[in-house]
Specification:
Strand order of the largest sheet: 1-2-25-24-23
Distance between the termini: 18 Å
Strand content: 35-45%
Mean pLDDT: 91
Radius of gyration: 24 Å
Order of helices and strands: EEEEEEEHEEEEEEEEEEEEEEEEEE
Number of strands: 25
Length: about 400
Amino acid sequence: MSAHRIERTLSLAIVGASLALGHSALHAQQAVPQAVPQDVQRSALHDFRMVSIVTGLENPWAVAFLPGGDMLVTERAGRLRIVRGGRLLPDAVPGVPAVRQGGQGGLLDVVPHPQFATNRFIYISYAKPNADGSQGTTAVIRGKFQNDRLENVEEIFEAQVWSPGRGHHGSRLAFDRDGYLFITIGDRQVPPRGELEQHPAQGLTTHHGKIIRLHDDGRVPADNPFVGRTDALPQIWSYGHRSLQGLAVHPVTNDLWETEHGPQGGDEFNLIEKGKNYGWPVIGFGVNYGSGAAIHAGTRRDGMEQPLNVWVPSIGTSGLMIYTGDKFPAWRGNAFAGGLVGQQLARVSLDGRRVTGVETMLTQQGRIRDVRQGPDGFIYLVFDNRGEGTLSVARLEPVTRR
């Protein structure tokens, strides 16, 4: 938490004001600062408190807000839950597909269609099992949320990243203002060995380490950067990523921002642009787990993008949001990134496409899995904790600074 300067006032009192004696005395009096309530968190621009909304969920992964006030929350174990009127309904939503749960896999992100009020579509990403459950990939379905059920479910995307592993699924979803759907797909923990340029995150023939761009029904947009190439998959928008855990479209500029895990060190905050290469594993700022041995060929290379911010040591970036609400006016236009390993919330100050500062907030409160702005202008956090009574979803509310 940022330290704040406590303003002090100096009151000068002239005692024994007799000019004939040529004597004066100064008395300095220090103002006593008011005590800060224990539940108030201080930051550089706003004081706030964290208010619990839901407790006891099992590894919640994402939250989405629906017209009318309902919240949807995914549990990685494979359940989609409803929070209505501030109360978690006891039954999970029927109609959700079977997931390959374990490690980092399971039921993952959930977002409503931009025109949900009229079409009732919601989109869910998840770890999809093969027939015998021995392998999994990342897939996205959409269905109509009606009468507290998911109906007319259809798969709109299946990533070509099948693996027996259970890590680096990616799975963040975001719509831009033109109605295109973006999907993150992790590198599925393919180790960076030998010629780094041959790693599948650097190739265009699989979906490893990619951001995908689709129409809302899964069709490929004609202006995607690699459409028409025989050596590339047409869904790809950007490549050279590792474990993409945060994705957000700026509501004003329509810029696409992303956060991803480095290995040991080197978490990244990136501005994502059409057709560009973000370097993994050829360039980066991390090292091998445990040994600390070098992974990358360097930190820069022509034709590969630089992150706009790097966290070393890693904070385990997860969940990303650009704030545009009215409850915290000094934070408008800032990005907020959750931290898993770091158990923190990072506020990234932006000036257009330039990072001007990073503030660490809410340290050691729990593993922050998702960050969203609610329709009420408050900031909502999802905590990847587990067990009865543990914090699952919380809201940040402003406190007037005295």
